[in-house]
Amino acid sequence: MLTTRVIPCLDVRDGRVVKGIRFQALRDAGDPAARAAMYEANGADEIVMLDVSATTEGRSAAARTVRAIRRVLSIPLTVGGGVGSIEDAARLLDAGADKVSVNSAAVRDPSLLTRLAGRFGRQCTVLAIDAARASGTYRVLTRSGTTAEPLDAIAWAAEGESRGAGEILLTSFDRDGTGEGYDLELLGAICGGASIPVIASGGGRTAEHLASAVRAGADAVLAASIFHDGVTTPDAIKHELSLLGVRVRPSRCEPVNCVGGVS
Amino acid sequence: MVSNSGTDSYASDVAAANGADVYIVRTGSANLASVAAAIDRIGARPIITADPADVLIADRLILPGVGSFGGAMAELTQRGLVSALRERLSIGRSTLGICLGLQLLARGSEESPGVRGLAMIDAVVRRLPTEPGLRVPQMGWNLTEPRHTCRTLAGGFAYFANSYALREIPKGWRGSTFAHGELNPVAAIEQGDGDRLVVAAQFHPELSGSWGLDLIRRWVIGRPSIEADGAEPTAQLASRPAPRAQAVPYDRIGEEPCSRLA
Known about the structure:
The complex is a heterodimer of chains A (263) and B (262).
Chain A: E1 5-13, E2 16-21, E3 24-28, H1 32-41, E4 47-51, H2 56-72, E5 77-80, H3 86-95, E6 99-102, H4 104-108, H5 111-120, E7 125-134, E8 137-142, E9 147-152, H6 153-163, E10 167-172, H7 184-193, E11 198-201, H8 207-215, E12 220-223, H9 225-228, H10 234-243, H11 255-258
Parallel strand pairs in A: 1-4, 1-12, 4-5, 5-6, 6-7, 7-10, 10-11, 11-12
Antiparallel strand pairs in A: 1-2, 2-3, 7-8, 8-9
Helix pairs in contact in A: 1-2, 6-7, 8-10
Chain B: H1 10-17, E1 21-25, H2 32-41, E2 45-49, H3 52-57, E3 61-63, H4 69-78, H5 82-90, E4 95-98, H6 100-103, E5 106-109, E6 121-127, E7 138-146, E8 156-162, E9 164-165, E10 174-177, E11 186-193, E12 196-201, H7 209-221, H8 235-238, H9 258-261
Parallel strand pairs in B: 1-2, 1-3, 3-4, 4-12, 5-6
Antiparallel strand pairs in B: 6-9, 7-8, 7-10, 10-11, 11-12
């Protein structure tokens, strides 16, 4: 049976990890490769790196950062931020990403999802959705949360899946960086309609938050601030999750890992 | 913590992998960088190739694969690699298939009806069923359990990203399985030993942390069977011509324009 993934997220700007609140007030949180290696050693199941560079120079640094992370990382790496074409995706995959996530560009041209899935496979194509509450519905935001699109997040998730997305990375703009817990209503609505995996993002701080997201249907839980700020580690929070009844990958060699027939 | 061979031989395993050449088949859309990085990390030397001669005679070859069954077979056919792969596999030369690289060993796949695979295994790859609570693609860490005494396949958690799988361990292969609802599809299979060790994993050993790196290392060094000890040395192997591709230092992989990778 598949286990729930715990995914530290590295927002990277001009080669450094940063973290803000509701996508603003970014503060420095270290070197991306060092962080990634530390999180793998501490039990992370996967790493997501989002390039939030404001400049062209920052953008072209992203592939270098991916290469530096790949050199030290033996778990999956999803990379997103500014991916607008097959060529952008190919550059990141060649540098060492295992999956590529698209956001604004897919909203502008949903056929990008189909083309990415056709070229690299559905399992490589992640649709990132930033959603914000707006009078009883959820609106899709693009351009790092600065542009509200005339697009319903739940309908967009369904369309994204039918267009070729193999996974949805769902971020609640309202909860991002707040530590108030994931937006469970949003999560439940998206997970209820999806047959592809959904990663919950935005607001997770405690093991109870993460477990609630799993109960709402999430296949994976993403968090940034709690790991960057040393509030907890992937190992520690996975241990707490297991006590809350969530199946996780044991990070150390527990007896189950050592059973088996290698002679 | 190492379960395979007793802790005393672990250090010598690490030493044995050092400097070994591992050829990786350039299969179009496959994510080569992660595979190359894993080979680099165990101390071996990754060499990317699309040359049929390398594919035939390399001592160790990895057949990676992401994408669709039909697309990958078309790619292999276009590059003239199908017969080289079939010949190499038929004599059991050490090969590691990853993900789609396992599925391609089969006769065909429900993913691409009518497309013939490498047909080293008389079975058809089937789609994983979707049920409430069972999402497809299967994306994440699942427990793998050996069904035989294996040379490379240990029990433990492995990273999967797949929508299709073999339903049963084929006759003549050792293997491990994972749980998907009520089913126990194939996680990985292996055959042979020493320098005739074919391993194919549905999961991604290169993305399965230190557990996965240990598996790759066991495959790279080979583990001669007790029966093989003292048997005829592989004289014909020594006289083989050297493979032709130039080594690409890991640091430079990925700096190539993607058009050349494609």
